[in-house]
Amino acid sequence: MRVLLSTYGSRGDVEPLAGLAVRLREQGAGVRVCAPPDEDFARRLADVGVPLVPVGPSARALTRAAPAPASLPERAARLIAGQLGPVTEAAEGCDLLVATGALPAAAGALSVAEKLGIPSVSVTFQQLTLPAPHRRPLAYPGRPFPPEVTDPKTLWELDAQSVNTLFGEALDTHRASLGLPPVDDVRAYVVGDRPWLASDPFLDPWHETPDLDVVQTGAWILPDTRPLPADLTAFLDAGAPPVYVGFGSMPLHAAADMARVAVEAVRAQGRRLVLARGWAELSPGGDRDDCFEVGEVNQQALFARVAAVVHHGGAGTTTTAARAGAAQVVVPQVADQPYWAGRVAALGIGAAHDGPAPTVASLSAALGTALAPETRARAASAAGRVRADGASVAARLLLDAAERGGQDRRSRPAVPPLPAGQDHRSPLTGPPVLAGPPLP
Fold first, then answer.
1. Under a CB-based contact definition with an 8 Å cutoff, are residues 277 and 295 in contact?
2. In angstroms, rounded to a whole number, what is the distance separating the alpha carbons of residues 34 and 52?
3. Closest listed residue to residue 218, CA positions, set 7, 335, 392, 24
4. 55-90 pLDDT per residue, tens
5. What is the pTM of this model?
6. How does 414-424 read in b/e, with b if 16+ C-beta sit within 10 Å?
7. Is the confidence at residue 419, as pLDDT, over 70?
8. Which of 80, 152, 159, 428 could form a disulfide with 108 if both were Cys (CB 3.0 to 4.6 A apart)?
């Protein structure tokens, strides 16, 4: 069995595929991953022995360049075009293709699978891309919804129109080059009617809707066994648990002074600091011994040893911190991150900062909430409710579907037997849906 996993996006779009790849290989499947050519991603996949097929431009370079919203259709066209050659070549001989990441990239990869006659699955790592009558869709950059329109159903109709306007022409052009017919509704082509949602049911509970039969597998988590660096371990051992501050793949254009603000806010709470450089290349500056700077690190191990985690609110970081039992402060920047901030606050396991650019005072106040004994107690208690088997569940479903073989991605395979002790509304049903926030 050979499976191709395809994505375009940030670390949060690549890391879950590493977790799924490991579980697929444990069950005897051959796996390769199509992803942006960034060194971070290649190194992470190499750590688990999965080859990277580079696709498109550097996600890091594109993110840090902060292109204008008006260029989104042009960037989408280039991204879809960039999928065709590498994904087609990588997909030859595969039994199944899994697509996620930015919507136009997923649509391009799914078109390749359609052309080759390969069963395909698309997956979202958070529910905000799934049409639902109880909430609004995310607005694309430069295309705000009319302020007078508040009905969710109408807003989702406007969202579908935006997706077609932004991505429809480019997708149909490249589909024509493959000999495929045009797509009337791009979002519907990617979503389908029974999507898979690869997020944790405790952190991101799905509310049933009449139009979608959502299958929630749980988050795709790769257990990280890498040891923490010796100098970091020495820092952790030298005093009380510090506060971790890191913003992952976020360039922090709206908060250029984030490192200074973070250092001063953490010190105002009487805590030491571990600061992750990330794509914004944060650095604490100075030579005080209460700050420690890190690059790539085992967050699972580190978060288990900190007093709180200050981050941007990506699905992966939120889930990792919750599994570690660490209280959180979420400073959301874009896309789904305000949603995750709201979930952390609603669960009482941390605080949601209002806006992407904190001051020393506002971040210190949020930290005060997160570091309060009652918040830390709730965070510790919640850790046991976050599932760890999502990637295993998804791997089993994918291989079962591929072994049945020959299904069009719109035909839904039968539900395999449920594992002992699982409820019928947990992970198991059939193929899937897209993912991903707008293009970086």
1. yes
2. 6
3. 392
4. 999 999 988 887 888 888 998 898 898 888 999 999
5. 0.90
6. eeeeeeeeeee
7. no
8. 80
